[in-house]
C-alpha cells in the first residue's frame, strides 16, 4: 500500500471517529477554569488547556465540525450556482457568454481570499456572514470549469441531435451535459473544500470570522500565537489539526483525480 493511500485511510478513519463519536455540550466547551490556564498536555487533558482554562481537544473537534459545516453550506451554494451559470454560458454563447466571462474575469482579477476579507469586513463577523462572503467568491471556479467542459462536449452528436429535436435546455443540461462533466466537477469540489476550510480559518484568524466564544480553528491559532513561547502546545496542536484536515482533503482530491484519469484512459483504450 502506498504511503499516501495509508495516510488517507488512516486520517479519514481517525477524523471520522473523532467527529462522529465525540460529543460535548457547548457550555462545557466554553467553561472557564482559571486554575487550568495554559496547562500543558497531561492525563486529564491530552491537548492541554487554553488561555482561559478551557480544554483544547474538545474545542479543536468543535472547530473542525464548524469548518466542515461551513464547507457543506458554501460548496452546496457555489457548486450548484457556479456549475449552472457555467453550463448555460457554454450552451447559450453569444452576449450572455461574454457577460458571464467578463464577470468571471473581474472576480479572478482579485485574490479570492482578499475579496472574502473585504466582504466579511463590510458585513461584519459571524457564521452567517462568513458563509455569505465565501459563497459570493467561491462560485467562480465552478463556473469557469463547467463552461470549459460544456464547450468541450456541446458538439457531441447526441447533444446536437437533442437540440435539433427541440429538447428543452434544462433537459439537455440534466440528461446530456451534467453526466459528461461530473468527473472534473467532483475533483474541483474536493479542492474547493480545502480552500473553504483555510479561508474560514483565515477570516477567524483575522477576527472577522466566527465570533467568540464559538470554537474556530483559525481563532484558536490566533489566540495561541500570543503564548507561543510559554504554551507552544496551544498553537502547535491546533495548527497540526488544521493542517491534517486540509491535507486529508487534498490527498483525497488527488486520489479521486487519479482514479478518474485511469478510468478515462481505460475507456479510450
Provide the descriptors you would attach to this structure in a database record.
269 residues; mainly alpha; MetI-like fold; 76% helix; elongated
Describe the fold and architecture.
The structure is a single chain. The protein is mainly α and 269 residues long. It has one domain (51-268): MetI-like (MetI-like fold), CATH 1.10.3720.10. Helices cover 76% and strands 0% of the residues. It has ten helices and no strands.
How many discrete structural domains? 1
CATH class designation = Mainly Alpha
Calculate Rg over CA atoms. 22 Å
Percent in helix: over 70%
Explain briefly what this protein structure is:
The chain is mostly helical and 269 residues long. 76% of the residues lie in helices and 0% in strands.
Helix and strand arrangement:
Layout: H1 3-21, H2 26-29, H3 56-92, H4 94-108, H5 112-123, H6 127-153, H7 157-164, H8 169-205, H9 217-225, H10 232-268
Helix pairs in contact: 1-10, 3-4, 3-6, 3-8, 4-6, 5-6, 6-8, 7-8, 8-9, 8-10, 9-10
